[in-house]
Description:
Distance between the termini: 42 Å
Number of domains: 2
Strand content: 5-15%
Structural class: alpha/beta
Shape: globular
Strand order of the largest sheet: 1-2-3-4-5
Number of helices: 15
Largest sheet: 5 strands, mixed
Radius of gyration: 22 Å
Number of strands: 5
Amino acid sequence: MSELDLGLKVASRRLLWRMGYTTRLDVQLRSVGAAERPTAGAAGAAGRSRRSSVPEAFTDLDVLGITVTGGFRLQSAIVDCKTTVKGSTSRMFWVRGVADFFAADAAYMVREKDLSNAARQLTSRLGIAALTSAEVTRLEELHPSHLALDAEPLAWLFQRDKAATVLGTFNGLDKRLKPLLEYREFTYWLAEEHRNPMQLVDELTAVARYLDPRNPHHLALVLDCAWLYLLTLSHAVESLRAAHVADPDRGLQEYLFGGPAGLSEKQGLSRLLEGIKQSGALPDGVHVDLLPSYFPRLRELAIRILTRADSVLPALRLLEFATSVTALGQRIEKPEDMGGLYDDVAAKRAADVVGFLVGTAGLDNGFRARARSLLLGEPMT
């Protein structure tokens, strides 16, 4: 990633913020590691699969934007940023393919200076906006914002050096955190959406003992996971509103297992395991229930989001901002210092998500206290 590329990325990020998005830079898309085919006569037992092959990179999204439209529908935008004009025509087809793969609702191709005439002619046919950096600035002027995007600390999100620091925050962390880091960077984006509410909790739980709330990079990591989790629950709430708005308990169960058929299958498996357990073939301590023990708390959190859907986008933005502030080793003393970003309900919702993850994954309570101090201005105790 060149310095100029990063400059285009933060400029595009600022444009998306003006358009009403929460954003993420450098979203990596890659394959899942597949087990190698058995090789007879190989070292070890013949016929057994060897270790999984290294996952292969698909591509990356330079800038991802997420917003919530009327009727609580999540929409996404992707931005491809390059400093060179070379190949911009063929790149338009590439961007269209990536947008379709990611199911993005809007796509942009941004170049530093000139764009080929052919690329501009393809914009309407391919449904992609093609912009130079000057045109990004012009578009910003057409989207005024009440937020102080050009004043610190909010401007840190859009400064190239600050963005580079934040992007490098999680490099070099304890190698025991690698499973969580790889999940948030890779697996989360390609996993079936309904799997993430439980998988993210599992990933955090597995590394909870290695996370220290006094380490700002660890705190930034937990805040980033809270951003991912709120996005995950927003997908769940979108599903609830469409099918089970009057029965969120049933709707959330169906969502977690991929629909009515998946839920029915898991219910049958749970009954089978319960029978085996009652026969004494399984120890009493083995959990065979269909739902995780934290399901009531998850349902309560989902209902809070459902009843105040207008707070989701502001809460996502607060968590995005809080992650960057923490990764930079900075601190916001009071909500009024957030450049107009602070919203009381949104801040409480963001803190609720952090609190849920802390309690459910067994994280140190210091994460909860520090998050509430940062998001709500509460004093540290």
